[in-house]
UniProtKB/TrEMBL annotation:
Domain Probable zinc-binding: 65-110
UniProt xrefs under InterPro entries: Zn-bnd_dom_prob
A Pfam family that the UniProt record links to this protein: zf_Tbcl
The organism of origin for this protein: Bradyrhizobium elkanii
Protein name: Probable zinc-binding domain-containing protein
Amino acid sequence: MEARRRKAEEWRRIQTQRAAERQRLRDYKIALARDEVAVDTTRLAPSNSYSTPDFVLRGTYRPEPFVCKDCGVAEVWTPLQQKWWFETAKGDVFTTAVRCRACRTKERVRKCAARRVHLEGLARKKSSVS
């Protein structure tokens, strides 16, 4: 009697898992039809987190709206940009876009100038000590 009950519970558990997998597959096909881009989990950078990002669970990248933290312009992080960031550039899977393209360019120039000034200062310090 106990074996029958356990077998029935196991069968229900398996059926529930199969139904959930079928639903995920249906959702995935619908997402691809909406021009979302598929995730290749083998190309993602390793993460030391116990949780899984939403886009990995979903299986697709979808447009993510954000507001630029420098100029305040509303932008959209496109699925193709996300795919490049996570799979090619190996960005952390829990990061999101925070700056528009123009502000990213300005920030890159600012950092480059700060690095140059810092290195010139180190070179001057080294030459005056020697």
